[in-house]
Fold:
Amino acid sequence: MAKLGRANILIAAVQVPFTRGGAEILVDCLKRELEARDHSVDVVQLPFSAQPKEKLLKHTAMWRALDLRDFNGKAVDLVIPTKFPSYMVAHPNKALWLVHQHRQIYDLYGSRFGDFNADVADETLRQMLVEADQCALKECISRYTISQNVTDRLQRYLGIDSKPLLPPLPLAGRYRSGTRGNFILSVGRICSIKRVDMMVKAMAHVDDALKLKVVGVPDEPAIETYLQSEIDKHHLWDRVEFLGRVGDEELLDLFANCLAVYYAPYDEDYGFVTLEAFASGKPVVTASDSGGVLEFVRDEYNGLIVEPSEQAVAQAVNRLHADEALYEKLCANAALMEQTNWDEVIDALTQSLRPASAKQKSTQAELYS
Structure:
């Protein structure tokens, strides 16, 4: 990548208090990598809550009211928005790296994971949010997403083109393959759409020799109570362990020494977990409706893809435990997955800072003059 001069760059991020997941990790890593290339970088965040949904327009207006063109006489050369509603921000040089839109008004609309209904009030609000998205996203001087799945959604629902730009792993170069352990590993936020409950319930049908270790914390009030009730119901007290948040070294050890990784969210945007498992030489058990995960998992090549049910998940886990030849093949193939690198990502996101982009930037700037 050709070296650029020092630029002032702001990353527009969304803060959901007390929540940390892949989007937050991505922002931290992006800031680190931009700074490593001698740019001056800061993160602009506004707190966000999806509930009550009637306040979503207020959130979009708060972001739109931000003028990030300069601070104390220091010009901001580039803004990188990441997810709804951060891309509403006003700036003539927005390079979008989209994690996701507000999915409840798009792919989750009408699903059990959505909270918008077909009544007049919801439809009116939904249409206003869609129109705001169309306006703000079309302003971006470049549009990248974190996966083909997110790119497809953007085209399907808004007719807006974008290119996938896959995020490199947060602990790249540190993952390793260890022993064949006696536990299944689940990593990520514990909420309904991540479907950790499906793996917990599957444990009632999994070989008694195997355990489940869950890394992550609940971000929905009732989910912890529900999972505990399932553990009690199926007498799984000594077979399911919730580890909460863990440090990097412990996480690397868990990936290295598990039997396999369970990662079967509903229509996932991307999911670091899949590639973290592969970097550790471990197969992934996922579901046929897991979205971005399916861009990487190939059934019976580096993982197992099953119908989204506890019985199917249990059968897949038992198969990995019993069929050593299959297991060894999946592990070997998982380790072959090619990883992306930060040079490619930074080069794409900062392309508008190069001289050839000056004319396009000038045209965009007219919108904000």
Remarks:
- The CA atoms of residues 186 and 214 lie 5 Å apart.
- Residues 120-139 form the longest helix (20 residues).
- Residues 8-168+341-368 form a domain with the Rossmann fold fold (CATH 3.40.50.2000).
- The mean pLDDT is 93.
